[in-house]
Design goal:
binds zinc ion; single chain; 32% helix
Length: 196
């Protein structure tokens, strides 16, 4: 079951496929039709040229926004964060169940990364998992978290990191409720809650 998590993570990566436009093969049976198609596709190419220049500009803007990373040295993080938050987020620690601030929090609002303030989870997707850790069935935006295979302690799990600063947040499992069937099992120490 845990392996499935890994598969899901890799499936998501494959979504970022870059699609090219389709090249029409000339049809051998109907030479006249294939000639028309060729002429049409040539004129389409001619019309497409200026548009593709504009698209190139848009891609550059998107790339700039998604590389909004927060990179700090380990000693910088250690100075900035409380010992507990540092241990969980930068040293990949896990707080003890039922000890964190948010496992039993039922207020409406947003959970942000404790290190960089990246919005991660909405209270709308929070559910009572009974584990003693705050649990969500989906992040607020898929690209705001990064999932990687974690083989520590002899287990195959999927670790969840903040996409902006690489803070360790927790793990994701495939035994969550509908609609996703996922359980993002987070550490309270990795999150900062703001009431709506
Ligand atoms: Zn972060």
């Amino acid at each position: 079951m845990k392996n499935l998590n890994v598969c899901k993570a890799s499936n998501r990566v494959s979504k970022n496929t870059v699609y090219g436009y389709i090249n029409y093969e000339p049809m051998k049976k109907y030479p006249s039709i294939s000639a028309i198609i060729l002429i049409m596709s040539c004129s389409a190419c001619a019309q497409r040229s200026p548009e593709s220049g504009n698209n190139g500009g848009k891609h550059e803007q998107t790339a700039a926004a998604s590389t909004d990373k927060v990179v700090k040295s380990d000693s910088e993080w250690q100075k900035e964060l409380s010992p507990e938050v540092y241990q969980v987020t930068r040293q990949h620690g896990t707080e003890r169940a039922f000890t964190g601030k948010y496992w039993d929090n039922h207020e409406k609002g947003m959970y942000y990364c404790a290190c960089c303030g990246n919005p991660l989870f909405s209270s709308d997707t929070k559910f009572d998992s009974g584990t003693g850790w705050p649990s969500f069935y989906a992040p607020v935006k898929e690209s705001n978290v990064t999932e990687i295979k974690d083989t520590a302690y002899g287990m195959i799990r999927t670790e969840v990191l903040c996409s902006r600063c690489s803070a360790h947040l927790g793990h994701v499992f495939d035994d969550g409720p509908k609609p996703t069937g996922l359980r993002f099992c987070m550490n309270s120490a990795s999150l900062k809650f703001e009431k709506k």
